[in-house]
Amino acid sequence: MAAEIQPKPQTRTPVLLNKIEASQDVVNTAVIIPKEDGVISVSDDRTIRIWLKRDSGQYWPSIYHTMSASCSCMSFNPETRRLSVGMENGTISEFILSEDYNKMTPERTYEAHQGKVTVVLFVLEMEWVLSTGQDKNLTWHCSESGTQLGLYRTIAWVSGLQFDVETRHAFVGDHSGQVTILKLEQDSCSLVTTFKGHTGNVTALCWDPAQRVLFSGSSDHSIIMWDIGGRKGTAIELQGHNDKVQGLCYAPHTRQLISCSSDGGIVIWNMDVTRQETPEWLDSDSCQKCEQPFFWNFKQMWDSKKIGLRQHHCRKCGQAVCGKCSAKRSTIPLMGFEFEVRVCDSCHESITEEDRAPTATFHDSKHSIVYMHYEPTTGWLLTSGADKVVKLWDMTPVVS
User: Fold this and answer.
1) Per-residue pLDDT tens for 385-398?
2) Can you name the CATH fold of 298-356?
3) Per-residue confidence band for 254, with pLDDT thresholds at 50, 70 and 90
């Protein structure tokens, strides 16, 4: 049974700036246009819309363009104003937006996939368009010629993709819960490594090139911070959502991670603290505290004439314990547990009030989030929901 999050009331909260409510279907991806009071959205209703704020204070479309299929994802590069839109039919359509965002000129179409495009990334430095699809393929195309440069077959369809320009590493998160690191070349790629820490599918990835840290969110409600550089191999678990993690953004100037989930929760994590890895769960045939046998240990049950007990694990030390020896609960924020979890009696005694000081704040967006985008230059956050509404938030009260 999932633990209940009981966040304390926050004095500082995100400020809702505006709502955009004109889409006929779910907005799959939307981004804030930097240095402009505008938003770009793509939707299941097959539309691409450029929303600009009018004198009335409301956002109205300066561009309303209907595509041949549902728009599943997009990538926007503000420097070149290149908009790459992935669609349900497997194609990627590219457009160049005018300086005043009132005109959209078709540039190129890529026949990239045999199924729905799940993620598309335009990498200006490489002049590449990276994309993944439900056909389990990762492809990269030359954005200048439109030709396909390479293809990699994944074990499951991909729902998260990030790229590091400096090392040419692609981070691929899929529906098996696995994250794959690939080294991409102009016309080939090599497998670097794979790692798996989620029990559900990977739903979001976020890469911080400065700290060499990858964040992965999952349908198992958890977030894992993978230290790719520095202390290699370290994996820190963050537990702060009651539903599927839908988006991750990192604010490097404040070292805060922003995460959101389909239950409407927005969590701000302080990553400028020394966090601890959660321990591996230990195996034992009897409680490692009172030595009572667990219910499958028939020999010890017979020898000691005792009834077998159900096995649990202490979230702090990882020991296998019975329910009586782990009846207490506690938050362990530095291990990522922002809500109360099972701990053994001795660990509960060792946890101080200082240890219980929260390292995250919890906020309610009041809609089921399907996508989010953070714009660090303004401190604004965009959330799009299953309710077909796009909300704009001022995050400066909490991301600071």
Assistant:
1) 999 999 999 999 99
2) Herpes Virus-1 (3.30.40)
3) very high
Query: Please, which residues bridge with residue 373 across strands?
Result: 382
The closest of 194, 184, 97, 79 to 140, measured between CA atoms, is: 184
Q: Which of 19, 41, 42, 23 is nearest to 32 (CA)?
A: 41
Fold for 15-279+360-394, please state it: Methylamine Dehydrogenase; Chain H (2.130.10)
- Cβ count near 80 (within 10 Å): 12
The confidence score (pLDDT) of residue 2 equals 41
Q: Does residue 373 contact residue 349 with C-beta atoms inside 8 Å?
A: no
Distance separating alpha carbons of residues 338 and 330, to the nearest angstrom: 9
Q: Which of 218, 250, 222, 253 is nearest to 236 (CA)?
A: 222
Domain map of the chain by residue range? 15-279+360-394, 298-356
How far is the C-alpha of 210 from the C-alpha of 8, rounded, in Å?
32
Closest CA to 214 of 263, 178, 265: 178
Question: Which residue has better confidence, 309 or 31?
Answer: 31
Query: Taking a C-beta distance cutoff of 8 angstroms, is the pair 28, 371 a contact?
Result: yes
Please report which confidence band the pLDDT of residue 198 belongs to, taking 50, 70 and 90 as the band edges: very high
pTM of the model as a whole: 0.86
